């Protein structure tokens, strides 16, 4: 134990008398942290700034399509470009102007609601007997 | 005190043996001088006896203890003064001695007093709290010597302790070593200075090409060599005049 204590004391003496070494000991990790932070921040900014442009054809104009539209806007990964015609959207994707087009068909909200209602009614009728 | 039996050493990439089948006995209380040219095997022998390197073959005993099974006990028995300064330049002389002494388990007031006494004895008391990097070669040698004897070893190995040292420092070192020897420490030292060995050593051995070529008191060696009046003449007669360059 005494040997360990004296060795630690000796290392402390050596360190406190080597100001260059002491500076490097603390500055190097600090420099590393700053460099890595800057690199990560830059990567994060690049991802945030570069949004993927996609076409959205909303033929439904109902609550479901509103919800889809809102969620896509909030994800901040996509740049939503609204297109009225399904045929135009298909052409633009085929030409390669856009990578992706989302087509929300006419009466999507109504059809979904009707389907849900049908399922609920069927399940209730099964329970009743 | 030291019994060496057929001790040999061949370094990994070397073509020749640095030490080859060396037999030697050194008695208690001797000052034994190992003389030899550069690369003769002096440092190799001292390094093996100090436990710093392993022999390729052969064995040795110090104070009856075999090196293979008593490494810890042997380390306490011996002191080593290496050829190069083994000191921390940014620590003071006192701090260096305190550290090296502590590594031998020394502590307390007696230990601290012993450091101070030795510093006074070797004329370094004024420089006790000065950093080693400001010391001259002779001062560093003296601090190195103190570091190796604080634990009062029975055998002291010195590898060219007076190289690069002025006459005054050399005299202080030699006188101090004589005092140590009078108090019972066996001394084994290597040197190039043949005249120094003649006056200082009780017995000398000349090593050449890893083998002991000559052994005896300095007087005996001169008497036995026909026409020789000085140790240098004996040395050249035994080792030849060819240069000893190794790489």
Automatic annotation (TrEMBL), chain B:
<protein>
    <submittedName>
        <fullName>ABC transporter ATP-binding protein</fullName>
    </submittedName>
</protein>
<dbReference type="InterPro" id="IPR003439">
    <property type="entry name" value="ABC_transporter-like_ATP-bd"/>
</dbReference>
<keyword id="KW-0547">Nucleotide-binding</keyword>
<keyword id="KW-0067">ATP-binding</keyword>
<dbReference type="InterPro" id="IPR027417">
    <property type="entry name" value="P-loop_NTPase"/>
</dbReference>
<dbReference type="InterPro" id="IPR017871">
    <property type="entry name" value="ABC_transporter-like_CS"/>
</dbReference>
<dbReference type="Pfam" id="PF00005">
    <property type="entry name" value="ABC_tran"/>
</dbReference>
<dbReference type="GO" id="GO:0005524">
    <property type="term" value="F:ATP binding"/>
</dbReference>
<dbReference type="InterPro" id="IPR003593">
    <property type="entry name" value="AAA+_ATPase"/>
</dbReference>
<feature type="domain" description="ABC transporter">
    <location>
        <begin position="2"/>
        <end position="234"/>
    </location>
</feature>
């Amino acid at each position: 134990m005494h040997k360990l204590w004296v060795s630690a004391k000796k290392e402390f003496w050596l360190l406190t008398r080597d100001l260059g070494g002491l500076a490097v000991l603390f500055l190097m990790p600090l420099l590393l942290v700053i460099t890595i932070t800057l690199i990560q921040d830059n990567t994060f900014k690049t991802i945030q700034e570069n949004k993927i442009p996609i076409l959205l054809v909303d033929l439904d104009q109902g609550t479901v399509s509103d919800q889809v539209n809102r969620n896509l806007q909030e994800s901040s990964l996509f740049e939503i470009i609204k297109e009225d015609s399904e045929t135009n959207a298909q052409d633009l994707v085929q030409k390669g102007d856009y990578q992706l087009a989302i087509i929300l068909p006419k009466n999507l909200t109504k059809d979904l609601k009707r389907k849900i209602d049908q399922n609920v009614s069927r399940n209730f009728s099964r329970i009743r007997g | 005190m030291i019994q060496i039996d057929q001790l040999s050493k061949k370094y990994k990439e070397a073509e020749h043996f640095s030490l080859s089948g060396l037999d030697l006995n050194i008695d208690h209380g001797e000052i034994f001088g190992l003389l030899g040219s550069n690369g003769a095997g002096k440092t190799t022998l001292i390094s093996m006896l100090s436990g710093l390197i392993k022999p390729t073959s052969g064995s040795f005993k110090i104070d009856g203890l075999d090196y293979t099974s008593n490494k810890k006990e042997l380390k306490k028995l011996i002191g080593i003064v290496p050829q190069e300064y083994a000191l921390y330049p940014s620590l003071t002389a006192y701090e260096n001695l305190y550290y090296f002494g502590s590594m031998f388990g020394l502590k307390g007031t007696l230990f601290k007093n012993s450091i101070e006494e030795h510093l006074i004895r070797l004329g370094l008391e004024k420089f006790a709290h000065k950093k080693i990097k400001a010391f001259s070669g002779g001062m560093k040698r003296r601090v190195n010597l103190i570091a190796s004897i604080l634990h009062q070893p029975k055998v002291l190995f010195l590898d060219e302790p007076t190289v690069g040292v002025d006459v005054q420092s050399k005299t202080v070192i030699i006188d101090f070593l004589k005092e140590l020897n009078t108090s019972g420490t066996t001394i084994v030292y290597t040197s190039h200075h043949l005249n120094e060995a003649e006056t200082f050593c009780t017995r000398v051995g000349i090593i050449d090409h890893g083998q002991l070529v000559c052994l005896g008191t300095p007087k005996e060696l001169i008497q036995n060599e026909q026409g020789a009046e000085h140790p240098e003449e004996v040395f050249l007669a035994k080792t030849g005049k060819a240069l000893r360059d190794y790489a």
